[in-house]
Amino acid sequence: MLKTVTATLLATAAMATATFACEIMLKASDTHPDGYPTVEGVKAMGKMLEEKTDGRICIEMFHSAQLGEEKDTIEQTQFGVIDLNRVSFGPFNNIIPETQIPSLPYIFRSVDHMHKVMDGEIGGEILGAFSDHDLIALTSYDAGSRSFYNSQKPITSLEDLAGMKFRVMQSDLFVDMVGALGANATPMPYGEVYSGIQTGVIDGAENNWPSYESSGHFEVAGYYTLDQHLMVPEVLVMSKMTWDKLSEEDQKLVMEAAKESTAVQRKLWAEREAESEEKVRAAGNEIITDIDKTPFIEAMAPVYEKYVTDEKLKDLVARIQAVE
Ligand code: GTR
């Protein structure tokens, strides 16, 4: 009995020391469940920070949209209520014009092309644009490519998409993208998609393998057409209010840890993509891989015309296309 009490006391004391040692606790948000590659990427960043600072700076991860849906958490991050937020570039499209560029349909030719762009000068410029909006973009993560899934029928061509209703992220660009393909878009928070499909409010949505699987959307939308219209990377942002409170040295450490976590996330991403695909196929879903993307790509021309308007954005697109 005494032994147990002593052990408990010691354990409590150890925990108290650990919490105490953590002088700067960064509150992080992610819409995805624990174990999802983005959540694990930020957790890995936390571990690195703890190691680099002897436990002085740490990250507390609130996964599974515990702090709210992406659009709301972005506002909370701008206000400094949330310190770190891992989100898609999509929900920033309406407020930061540069984020529309990696969100353009078929802008990247391959994962390799996307990595070269995002890890290089162009990616740096796009991340740099956040600082005018009370946010510091630390790094970008992988998110594969997004394709349409639905509860109604196998889609094998543009004709099949006509008149169908798809949920998109809350971004005008994606509303127009779906419109350009002849379907109807309904912007809605991620957390409402499952019931939206289940109740027939929407016919389907679009996302990558891990999101299609982890959200359970694959249970209510049995048809997945790999048209791969988007390859929008994820972005990890810090509240500028939090950033400004850090010493220059700590800012450097945070930036370094974020950049280093990218490699961890990308490795986990590749593994999870394969696992999610396996799980969805094992569930018996119909996966349409034999699809001619050319008409899809051609249909996107008006979207580029509408959104790539000023010289800065035109220049970014031209430079991305020129990256080998
Ligand atoms: C996922 C992405 C999330 C969220 C979601 C959505 O692929 O990782 O951050 O944007 O898509 O469609 O809302």
TrEMBL record:
UniProt KW keywords: Periplasm, Receptor, Signal
Alphabetical GO biological process terms: transmembrane transport
GO molecular function terms attached to this record: carbohydrate binding
Pfam families: DctP (PF03480)
Organism annotation: Tropicimonas sediminicola
Domain of life: Bacteria
Record's subcellular location: Periplasm
Primary site of residence: periplasm
Name under which the protein is recorded: Tripartite ATP-independent transporter solute receptor, DctP family
Signal peptide segment: 1-21
Cellular component GO terms, alphabetical: outer membrane-bounded periplasmic space
Entry annotated with the keyword Signal: yes
Keyword tRNA-binding: no
PANTHER family documented for this protein: DICARBOXYLATE-BINDING PERIPLASMIC PROTEIN, PTHR33376
